[in-house]
Structure formats: C-alpha cells, structure tokens
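Key result, reporting period 2: structure in, sequence out.
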C-alpha cells in the first residue's frame, strides 16, 4: 500500500462493491424505467465541460430542464459527488481535509465511468458535467456513449481565466451551491486544479473536432451566450460536420474576447465582495492576480478587430432530436468562426 493519497485507493473489487451496493441503489436504480430499451428512441448524452469555476452549475439546470421538457429523464453525473461514497471519506475530511480530493478522486472517476456504463446498458439519457482535469476521461466517456448508440451533444464553456479564478473564490466566500455539490463540504479549489482543468479543456475541444464521437457542439460563455455551434448531417454511414470544425478555435477566441458590460460589472462587484476577505490567507494576492488578468484581457481583446456574434443559448433546440440551426447571422464587422479559420489558413 502506498503513502499519502495513494494509500486510500480502493482495490478493483472493493470499488465495484461500493458501486453496485451503494451508488446504484442511491443514484441509479430509480432511473431504470426511464431508459429507451423498448420505445425505439435514441438515447441522448449531453456533456457539459468547463474548467473549475467556469459556471457549469449555472448552465446545467437549463440543459436538464430542456431534457425534461421533451420527456427525457436524464441521469445527472458529476464525478466529484461520488467522492463521498469512499469508505474513508468521513475520516479524511475530519483528520486530513487537504487530502479529501486527491485521496478519493481516483475512485470517484472510476465510479463515474461505471455509472455511465450502467446508463448505457439501460439506455438512460444522461447529463454529464466534467471539469476536464483528466481530459482523457471526457474523451473516453464521449466515445463510449457514441459506441453505445447514443446521440452525443457537447457544450463547451468558454470562460476567460480571470473569471473562473474569480468564480472559485466567490462561490467559496458567498457559500454558493456550486461550492457544495450535493453533500460535499464547502471547498476552495486549489489554483493548480483550476490550471489543470483550464488546459485540459483544450484537449477536450480538439477531441470534439477530430473524433467521430460527437454529434452536436456549442461553445458558450459563462452568461449562456453561444459563440459557436456545429452539428453533423447525413443519415447512416459517414456523418459529416455541417461547417468547418472550429470548437478549439472558438474556445481560444472566447478566452481573449473583452468582457461584455454585464460581465465586467459582475466581475467588479465580485472583486468588491472579496475586499471583505482580503486578510484571509492568499486572498489579497489572488485578487491582485485576477485584476492583472482582467486588465490584460481587456487590452489584448481590444486589439482584435472582430469576434463572432453572440446569441442566447436555446437549450431546447440544443437537446432536441436532430440538428437545429442555432448559428445566428453576424452583425456588422463580425466574422463567423469559419471565416476566422479561413483567414488564418494560408492559401494552397
């Protein structure tokens, strides 16, 4: 047995036992009847990805409601919430809280995979939230849903680094629901975890463009404004993207877009809130870093001449069967993602 977090890693047998006797009973068994085993409908997996602090907890309800409105009852999977099923979780939280995540995270990731496989077996619709700290997990899950006969829709949260770092602090100090997923204790996510997820999201976006696993994708900002949308067309055989692939490119662009007036006002209000906690360890330095990030973001973004038009997220259209036209017309001086890509590609 290893030391540190490694010593808490469960054997495959014990991990399977916890899943089958506790997680299935508490989280999954009631959904068996909602699967599409006999009704002929293609099951749907909606995967919401964004770095820690990006705002998944705020976007997920709109997607879940849209699924419910078309008579789909999705399983809602968040890897972090499975950590509490670890047999040592309560003791770790009490005695070594700093080890809670690294000690139980590996088994929570296994249980998320098992939960998704359970859903696939029963053809249950799914809403999955992923921070992409381990982007290979996202890639494997998306491929597993595709191979299991699912329609796979992915929503990528494109949030500037400054806003997600700010979001982590605000959700902690304002005790927001997203700081306590289900019955997890209040947590302040370490910056390294944030940075890992911020980088990992690029890998996930590239996978969307390059693999055959995803049927529809949107890139959406923290305030549920869509910057990019693409979907596949064709029935049977090879299904091709309607437009040139540009998920990763759209993510890059949105991360350097200057904040809208509303976004900037919210950021400034949040920074003022943190002034009350500036004496807490590390807060003053973090706030200074965030202010520097925001200044650089506004300066760099202002030097760019065009950005894709933003349109409100239509969650109902996104989860509906088939591909819907969500890509709005451009305003004056705006380039589409396709045109941005073409402009950057040298002529043959």
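The corresponding designed sequence is given below.
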């Amino acid at each position: 047995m290893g030391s540190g977090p490694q010593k808490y890693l469960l054997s495959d047998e014990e991990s399977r036992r916890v899943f089958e006797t506790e997680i299935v009973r508490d989280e999954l068994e009631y959904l068996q009847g909602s699967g599409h085993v006999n009704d002929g409908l293609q099951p749907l997996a909606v995967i919401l990805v964004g770095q820690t602090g990006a705002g998944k907890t705020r976007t997920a309800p709109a997607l879940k409601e849209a699924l419910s409105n078309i008579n789909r009852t999705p399983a809602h999977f968040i890897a972090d919430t499975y950590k509490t099923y670890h047999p040592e979780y309560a003791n770790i939280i009490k005695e070594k809280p700093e080890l809670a995540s690294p000690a139980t995270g590996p088994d929570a990731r296994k249980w998320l995979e098992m939960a998704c496989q359970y859903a696939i077996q029963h053809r249950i619709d799914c809403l999955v939230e992923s921070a992409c700290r381990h982007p290979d997990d996202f890639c494997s899950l998306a491929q597993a849903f595709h191979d299991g006969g699912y329609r796979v829709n992915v929503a990528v949260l494109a949030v500037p680094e400054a806003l997600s770092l700010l979001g982590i602090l605000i959700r902690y100090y304002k005790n927001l629901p997203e700081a306590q997923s289900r019955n997890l204790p209040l947590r302040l996510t370490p910056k390294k975890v944030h940075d890992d997820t911020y980088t990992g999201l690029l890998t996930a976006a590239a996978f969307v463009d390059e693999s055959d696993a995803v049927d529809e994708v949107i890139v959406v900002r923290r305030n549920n404004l869509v910057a990019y949308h693409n979907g596949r067309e064709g029935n049977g055989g090879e299904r091709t993207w309607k437009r040139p692939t540009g998920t990763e490119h759209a993510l890059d662009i949105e991360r350097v877009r200057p904040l809208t007036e509303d976004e900037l006002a919210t950021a400034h209000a949040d920074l003022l809130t943190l002034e009350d906690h500036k004496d807490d360890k590390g807060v003053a330095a973090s706030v200074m870093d965030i202010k520097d990030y925001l200044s650089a973001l506004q300066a760099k973004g202002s030097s760019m001449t065009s950005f894709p038009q933003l349109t409100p997220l239509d969650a109902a259209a996104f989860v509906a069967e088939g591909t819907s036209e969500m890509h709005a017309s451009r305003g004056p001086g705006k380039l589409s993602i396709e045109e941005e890509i073409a402009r950057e590609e040298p002529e043959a």
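Residues 323-348 have pLDDT under 50 and may be disordered. The chain has one domain: 17-327. This case is discussed further under Risks and Mitigation.
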